[in-house]
Amino acid sequence: MNAEQPQTSAPELKEQIEAERRGRPFLVFRDGGGGQRIVTVEAGTAALWVGRGESADVRLDWDEEVSALHAQIEVVRDECTLLDDGLSRNGSFVGEQRVDGRRRLRDGDTLRFGKTTVLFRRPGEGAPEATVTAGQIPAGATVSPGQRRVLLALCRPFKDEPAFATPATNQAIADELHLSVDAVKTHMRALFEKLEVGDLPQNRKRVALVERALQSGVVARREL
Amino acid sequence: MIIERTENPTWLSNAYLVADEEAGKGVLIDGNDDLGPLLERAERDGIEITHVLVTHPHGDHVAGLTEARQRIGNPPLVAHVETAAELEEEVGETIADGGVLTVGGLEIEAIYTPGHAAGHLAFLVNGSDVFTADVLFKGTVGGTMAPGASGFADLKASVMRLMELPAETRVHPGHREPTTIGEEREGNPFVRIWRGLAETGEEQVTVWDRPATLKLWAPDYDGGNKAWIVFGDDGTEAIVGGSQVVRSGTG
Predict the structure, then answer these.
(1) Phi, then psi, of B19 in degrees rounded to 5
(2) Are B92 and B84 in contact (CB under 8 A)?
(3) CB A65 within 8 Å of CB A90
(4) Are B205 and B189 in contact (CB under 8 A)?
(5) If you placed Cys at B150, which of A46, A111, B114, B146 could pair as Cys (CB 3.0 to 4.6 Å)?
């Protein structure tokens, strides 16, 4: 969300979208090697332990600042609550606030244990994203040749599945296609609608568009 | 002069109301989806918001601007032309380096500060307060791999240009708490190296599966870390979030 936060690659975003579609709460974080990990809170789960030890459900064993059993996430009817009753040496944080006792988690909360940041997602909460991501790519969504050229240029940085990429800017697309920025914006607005990402927050729209374009086959990676 | 700030609890991004209370006029700087308290303050003090300034087009700095502007009669957006290109909404007035906007008794000067984003602007108000958005924070600087970033050399030049402002100039960053130019000149670990007061490191690390040298590992505004790296394969320099850096000592 934050432009300063770690960037997500296209395959990682795909994983996140798949997790969202399942509709269950989930945790997203990076392991010691920088790879994305997703832990889904399955139906019927009463609690998850977060810690460095072997018995932890969310095991952060690469992070020396995490205690063996650091904190617990209690689950009651998909409502998740972070509990840190002082078991951890270095504390647990939601946003900037240290959790002393219990803290109800909301979709989009950033949790921190030791040096590891964990994003909490609850797809059912905070409607606009959920309604969008619950839907599949609209069947038979057709894009005009002009829109497709814009989409190709938008996806260009994702050629070769790099470990890091961000979608092309409007200016870069305009430069590549010799179009005015206003023409690019018009195409982008149409694409947001057609691939149904228009309701996403502004900071997620472009990367979601890339993901849907590649996933749906509207754009094939070899074309980039 | 009134300067009021809100901080979004998730993104830690700031939005500001800057106003001349005597003239009853002011501006908003950036949107962080938490503009309600700023609009309420303006209303309470009888301040007309005449312009909405945008430092750069990233989501955590423009969220909620549409709704906020609708509430106050759609004052024009003011931004650099390269920011205007990336915003979904129409920018009423573009402003370039050195451009001055006068609002009541406020003289707002645009300082072109690319690096974190191509069209990034800082705004210097009445020579005493500078709004630095994502170029300069208390104790750290902006990343150079964000969407539309123009790179390390630009970021460094932008930060060092801001360092030429008088030491007492108050700095209002795009995330977290204020600081001053003097404080950052002496204490910001990036600035200290760029001023020749400190040495760079040599630790070998991996970033996005590429070998890199870690020139500086410093605290970031969010409680995490910020890293200045140089890639071993092509010599590109970058400033990235600490979570992107794999250090063998901790990995």
Answers:
(1) -145, 155
(2) no
(3) yes
(4) no
(5) B114
Nearest to B185 by CA among B166, B201, B199, B200: B166
- Please tell me the distance from the alpha carbon of residue A3 to that of residue B145, in angstroms, as a whole number: 9
How many Å lie between the alpha carbon of A145 and the closest alpha carbon of chain B? 22
Bridging pattern class, strands B179-180 and A92-94: unpaired
Give residue-wise pLDDT tens across range A169-218: 999 999 999 999 999 999 999 999 888 888 877 777 898 899 888 877 78
Interchain proximity B59–A204, CB inside 8 Å: yes
DSSP A185: H
Determine what percent of chain B is predicted with pLDDT higher than 90. Answer: 91
Q: What's the rounded Cα separation, in Å, for the pair B118 and B153? A: 12
Q: Which residues of B touch A164 (CB under 8 A)?
A: 145, 208, 244
Q: What value of ipTM does the predicted structure carry?
A: 0.85
Residue contact A203–B60, C-beta within 8 A: yes
- At B193-246, the pLDDT tens digits run 999 999 999 999 999 889 999 999 999 998 889 999 999 999 999 999 998 899
Q: Which two tokens stand for residue B160?
A: 């060092």
For the CA atoms of A107, A154, B86, A119, the dihedral, rounded to the nearest 10 degrees, stands at 20
Q: State yes or no: pLDDT of B79 exceeds 90.
A: yes
What is the model's pLDDT at position A208?
Answer: 86
The type of residue at B129 is D
Q: Is B214 helix (H, G, I), strand (E, B) or coil?
A: strand
What residues in B contact A110, CB-CB < 8 Å? 10
Name every chain B residue with its beta carbon within 8 A of the beta carbon of A2: 10-13, 60, 222
Q: Give the SS3 label for residue B61.
A: helix
Kindly identify which residue of chain A lies nearest to residue B142, measuring between CA atoms: A4
Mutate to test the interface with B, among A187, A202, A206 (most CBs of B within 10 A): A202
Cα dihedral A49, A51, A57, A60, rounded to 10, equals 150
**Using a CB-CB distance cutoff of 8 angstroms, which residues of chain A are in contact with residue B9?**
95-96
